[in-house]
Amino acid sequence: QVQLVESGGRLVQAGGSLRLSCAASGRTVSGYTMAWFRQAPGKDREFVAAIDGGGGGTTIYADFVKGRFTVSRDRAKNEVYLQMNSLKPEDTAVYYCSAKSSSWINVRRESNYAYWGQGTQVTVSS
After folding, report:
1. pLDDT per residue over 44-67, tens digit each?
2. Less Cβ around it within 10 Å: N or C end of the chain?
3. CA–CA separation, 122 vs 91, rounded Å?
4. Distance of alpha carbon 52 from alpha carbon 5, whole angstroms
5. Poorest-confidence range of 20-29, 53-62, 68-77, 85-94?
6. CB within 8 A of 69, min separation 6: which ones?
């Protein structure tokens, strides 16, 4: 089993930056595809970004965060990060870390992820 714990969410002003962390335990997630999703009040959970488990570190982003967010991982620490810059009020949401052990396919699909954290709240004020 994999346990995921997110941290780093807080209140920030528009235009500001935050770095979310996701610490994995239970087993190494070095070879896992790791992703970030978010859920705003009254909306469905949506894909934000993902990074593959291979050595190449391939990443993919939702269009609404391209150029502003960066996903990365530290295999030695068993952690994944989401650097968020130029934050907008519409980025306000609970951000979730997730993991799947299968290959780099359908990475935007929520149902493909077996492991989830409890989420961390990000609030961007205007």
Report:
1. 999 999 999 877 789 999 999 989
2. N
3. 8
4. 19
5. 53-62
6. 48, 49, 61, 82, 83, 84, 85
What sections of 74-123 are H helices per DSSP?
Answer: none
Cβ proximity of 23 and 17 under 8 Å = no
Q: Which residue has the tokens 């009040």?
A: 41
Q: How many CB atoms lie within 10 A of CB 12?
A: 17
66 Cβ contact list (under 8 Å, min separation 6)? none
Q: What distance in Å separates the CA atoms of residue 109 and residue 70, rounded to the nearest whole number?
A: 19
Asked if residues 30 and 15 have their Cβ atoms less than 8 Å apart, the reply is no
